Amino acid sequence: MSESLQTFQTTRPRIVVGIPARNEQEFIAEVVYKAKKFTDEVIVVDDGSTDNTAEAAKAAGALVIRREINRGAGAATKSCFEEARQKGAHALVTLDGDGQHDSDEIHRVLTPIFSGEADLVIGSRFLGANNSIPRYRKFGINVITWLFNIGSRLKLSDAQSCFRAYGEKALHSLNIRQQGFSFSVELLLQARQQCLTITEVPISCTYHPASHSANPVTHGLCVALTLVKLRLENLFRRLLGRGIKEEPGR
Environment class of residue 35 by beta-carbon count within 10 Å: exposed (0-12), middle (13-18) or buried (19+)? Predict the structure, then answer.
């Protein structure tokens, strides 16, 4: 039995659920209510909403961090990381505030963390049967996932899902720099470089017409280009490091 599993069997784990949200007053209360079944620490980062997202989240029992200006999903998720660290969390769960993810499935992404099987768990929309992903979105997600997988021994089915669980090692070692949606692949690249254990579990997914998610074409192109840039930077960094080590007289 792993040391981490023994620890969580004898002490109650401190779980923080972080929910970035913008203009999701229609869905946020239900997302928070369901999340509170698993923890008392539900944080909603209202990223420049112009509706009553903050009020609805607070009424549902969430701690709300409100921003007047929209800074992006990456910046909002970074705030979730910072709050979880300050609260001494053993695990951080992130999910969207638009009802796309089912908060009742939080236990699925947490189980591999508390069993000591993984440092980072991705809720994959493509491992389960219950999803309503439009074809054009699925195509874009598959392209981004392929770009992440190419040349790597770690193969994922959904590199874009933001329904995730981060264990203590991942929570304290990963650092979000991308302010937009590219943060999702940025964290995976960092985790891979740090040899963190990443796994996937099946989740359901429902896309709502009223959701205020980003334009999928613009979003997809931005993430894909950033992913290519980050991978090239990592490649050049490794090649440069190898050159320095092999240089005579060093």
Answer: buried
Q: How far is CA 46 from CA 57, 75, 80, 243, in A?
A: 9, 11, 11, 46
User: Does residue 178 lie in a domain region?
Assistant: yes
Structural domain includes residue 250: no
**Cα 243 off chain centre by:** 35
Calpha distance 117→125 (Å, rounded): 20
Residue 248 lies in a domain: no
φ/ψ of 197, rounded to 5, equals -85, 120
Q: Which two tokens stand for residue 29?
A: 């209360």
**Domain total in the chain:** 1
Q: Which helix (H) or strand (E) holds 6?
A: helix 3-10
**Residues whose CB is less than 8 angstroms from the CB of residue 24 and which lie 6 or more positions away in sequence, other chains included:** 49, 53, 97, 98, 99, 211, 212
pLDDT per residue over 177-230, tens digit each?
999 889 999 999 999 999 999 999 999 988 876 555 555 656 667 777 777 777
Does 64 map to a domain? yes
Q: What tokens does 227 get?
A: 């992913």
Cβ distance 57 to 98 under 8 Å? no
What is the domain range of residue 171? Answer: 3-243
Strands of 38-191 (E only): list them.
41-47, 63-67, 91-94, 120-124, 164-167
Below-70 pLDDT ranges, the chain: 1-11, 129-130, 209-220, 235, 238, 241-250
**Residues in contact with 14: Cβ distance below 8 Å, sequence separation at least 6, in sequence order:** 39, 41, 87, 88, 89, 90, 91
- CATH number of the domain bearing residue 221: 3.90.550.10
